Amino acid sequence: MAYRPDTLENAPLGRDAAYPEHYDAGLLYPIPRAANRAPLGIEEGKLPFVGEDEWHAFEVSWLNGRGKPIVAVARFRLPAESPNLIESKSWKLYLNSFNQTRFADQDAVQSTLTRDLANAAGATVSVELLAVDDAELTPQSLPGECLDDLDIDVSNYTPSATFLVAGEEVVEESLYSHLLKSNCPVTGQPDWGSVLIRYKGPKIDREGLLRYLIGYRQHQDFHEHCVEHIFTDLMQQVKPEELLVLARYVRRGGLDISPWRATPGLTPPSPLRLARQ
């Protein structure tokens, strides 16, 4: 079926919606990335980063050919260069539409997900179906040094790149914080997360970096765009040789989102899941 990228005006997010039980690919609601990237100076076709949006879905179920329920955890990876992201509530509704639908086998489910999500995103989407007790879902820790014990005063809760300053010493380090919080751009609901920053370049002032990250506390945007905002500000203010920004957001509605953006050649530690997810 043909998908039409749309604005948030008609998105299911923030609206009452019936939860379908029978398969319906038309529930997926794509949203163009370009509108949120333009204010950051990011041009489509000239992305300053590579990356993916990694999703985990914990409420995935369907019926086998004999009507017996099957359950799984799904992992999806959307490339950052895809023209569209997929609105999260529409994704949840779409997955719920599998609940009372019969499929011949797991391969049929996986191929259906792969096809529908690629159509909505406008690019190839990776789909894995994991057992609910798969070892890859075991919680782990972020690598590097945590910033959260820094004793700082904070009075600004909107992102300000002026906090991002660096010295002359060139270092290679990984820093992380569990204090990331942003808000849904439609409903205003809080989105909690952790963020990892791995870089090689002028040493970033840690107190300033933590103040900057806390600045997203009242910011309203999608998870994916928050990560691109952080990446862009760090590149512009600090000018590192290498940079990776990875956010792992807490699960909401049976879905979690973990976007990452990096300079070419860097990849995130994977698989990696945190206890709050």
TrEMBL record:
<feature type="binding site">
    <location>
        <begin position="86"/>
        <end position="88"/>
    </location>
    <ligand>
        <name>substrate</name>
    </ligand>
</feature>
<comment type="function">
    <text>Catalyzes the NADPH-dependent reduction of 7-cyano-7-deazaguanine (preQ0) to 7-aminomethyl-7-deazaguanine (preQ1).</text>
</comment>
<dbReference type="InterPro" id="IPR016428">
    <property type="entry name" value="QueF_type2"/>
</dbReference>
<dbReference type="GO" id="GO:0005737">
    <property type="term" value="C:cytoplasm"/>
</dbReference>
<dbReference type="InterPro" id="IPR043133">
    <property type="entry name" value="GTP-CH-I_C/QueF"/>
</dbReference>
<keyword id="KW-0560">Oxidoreductase</keyword>
<dbReference type="GO" id="GO:0033739">
    <property type="term" value="F:preQ1 synthase activity"/>
</dbReference>
<feature type="binding site">
    <location>
        <begin position="88"/>
        <end position="89"/>
    </location>
    <ligand>
        <name>NADPH</name>
    </ligand>
</feature>
<dbReference type="GO" id="GO:0008616">
    <property type="term" value="P:tRNA queuosine(34) biosynthetic process"/>
</dbReference>
<keyword id="KW-0521">NADP</keyword>
<protein>
    <recommendedName>
        <fullName>NADPH-dependent 7-cyano-7-deazaguanine reductase</fullName>
        <ecNumber>1.7.1.13</ecNumber>
    </recommendedName>
</protein>
<feature type="binding site">
    <location>
        <begin position="223"/>
        <end position="224"/>
    </location>
    <ligand>
        <name>substrate</name>
    </ligand>
</feature>
<dbReference type="Pfam" id="PF14489">
    <property type="entry name" value="QueF"/>
</dbReference>
<keyword id="KW-0671">Queuosine biosynthesis</keyword>
<comment type="subunit">
    <text>Homodimer.</text>
</comment>
<feature type="domain" description="NADPH-dependent 7-cyano-7-deazaguanine reductase N-terminal">
    <location>
        <begin position="19"/>
        <end position="129"/>
    </location>
</feature>
<dbReference type="Pfam" id="PF14819">
    <property type="entry name" value="QueF_N"/>
</dbReference>
<dbReference type="InterPro" id="IPR050084">
    <property type="entry name" value="NADPH_dep_7-cyano-7-deazaG_red"/>
</dbReference>
<dbReference type="InterPro" id="IPR029500">
    <property type="entry name" value="QueF"/>
</dbReference>
<dbReference type="InterPro" id="IPR029139">
    <property type="entry name" value="QueF_N"/>
</dbReference>
<comment type="similarity">
    <text>Belongs to the GTP cyclohydrolase I family. QueF type 2 subfamily.</text>
</comment>
<feature type="active site" description="Proton donor">
    <location>
        <position position="191"/>
    </location>
</feature>
<feature type="binding site">
    <location>
        <begin position="252"/>
        <end position="253"/>
    </location>
    <ligand>
        <name>NADPH</name>
    </ligand>
</feature>
<feature type="active site" description="Thioimide intermediate">
    <location>
        <position position="184"/>
    </location>
</feature>
<comment type="pathway">
    <text>tRNA modification; tRNA-queuosine biosynthesis.</text>
</comment>
<keyword id="KW-0963">Cytoplasm</keyword>
